[in-house]
Specification:
This protein is of the alpha/beta class. The protein is 46% helix and 17% strand. Helix 9 (232-242) packs across helix 11 (266-284).
Length: 464
Amino acid sequence: MKLIALSAAIAIALFASPVEAHDAPHKGDTVIVPIQGEISKPLLLFLRRAIKSAEANGAEAIIFEMNTYGGRLDAAEEISSALNRVKIPTYTFVNSNAGSAGALIALATQHIYMAPISAIGAAAPIQATGEDLPATAREKTISYWSALIRASAARNGHNPDIGEAFMDRDKEVKIGDRMIHAKGSLLTLNAQEAAEKIGEKPLLADGIAESVADVVRQAKLAGALTKIEPTGFERLASWLTVLAPLLLLGGLLGAYLEFKLPGTTLPAVVSVLCFALFFFGHYIAGLAGSEVIALFVLGIILVLVEIIFFAHSTIVFGVAGVFLMLASLTWAMIDRYPGQRFFPTGEMLALPLLNLVSALAAAIVAIVILARFLPRTNLYKRFALSAASAPGPSFASGDHGFHGSNLIAPDSEGIATTMLRPSGKAQFGENVLDVVTNGEFVAAGTTVSVVQVDGMRVVVRPTV
């Protein structure tokens, strides 16, 4: 119990740790957010937190300072989707490079500025090895992503043909009678080309800027500048959220083994740490708040109340506790942005429910296997009988030189003197023996009968 309490204390201390290295923006501020290096899932977590912080605190605008050669298309799509939800003005300052996936993200902001020596474009999908996709896969991928890019560009006031030409080498771009880009190669624009005005509108970029401060001046943003950068916790959280199903599985199996081997402590510690890491990762990633953690803890308390005080008499507390725990686990994985309605949509619930159902299904399969084979192992026999035994002599454990088989026979009836969960003690006549059920919990005082005697192992069940 001390180790469990220590694990819980560590988890609480982690949840109480600050998640931002800088002060939150104030109302009217212009928020500067760097997009550096590879476009990946960890970057998505950071940008999500930055966007939510800027919107929730009433920032005037967000400027993404970008220098990337690209990265994962799936991460770029999720980042673009997040940017397209933003309700305040968004700017991209291309400070050197907006290559590949970076170009797709830039098109998801409303305004683009570029440094004098910079480039944007060349967003063709390729394999992880760097090789081109096979012809059929390439055609399907480009068709899908071209549609997304066109929609994102049009939404933010950019020329959809430009975005499509970044990805599709067969796309021709013409404005009026002027040929901007001929088919046969991917489109890449330098700063001067992107900022060139054709008619009254620039081709892509609103202007050329020397720095973020110059972007602020040209865009006439009046608020103070606040920079938000990724924290070390966010880098850790990115991996913990990816491992969410495995952490849930570890937490469920640890809890099951603790009930099967009460008093061994180690499974309980594993369970506590898995759930703590699960909530910690989602808390730092901006998905779960302290109220979700409190809901989970309340669920645990209700389940313990059911087991300790109302075993075999009511299921109300247990069912309510399990419901609260499952609800909190699901809620912790829902990605919610400021201004969205309280009850999640089907789209918001899809991934959390998939993770939860996958973990539950895997846990059920593992528990069925453990329930069948674990009682036959020497490890279980060693821990199960000793863990539930109170101090004092125990015939079944070998004290006084007797075994259960010397003192009891199948079909003998007795009384459980301790709660069997599933191991404990039962009295048969004048003898008190260590016994174990086949998995069910039996309350103290229940009449039990012996179904099997195997050396020191006495298996019982409630008498019908």
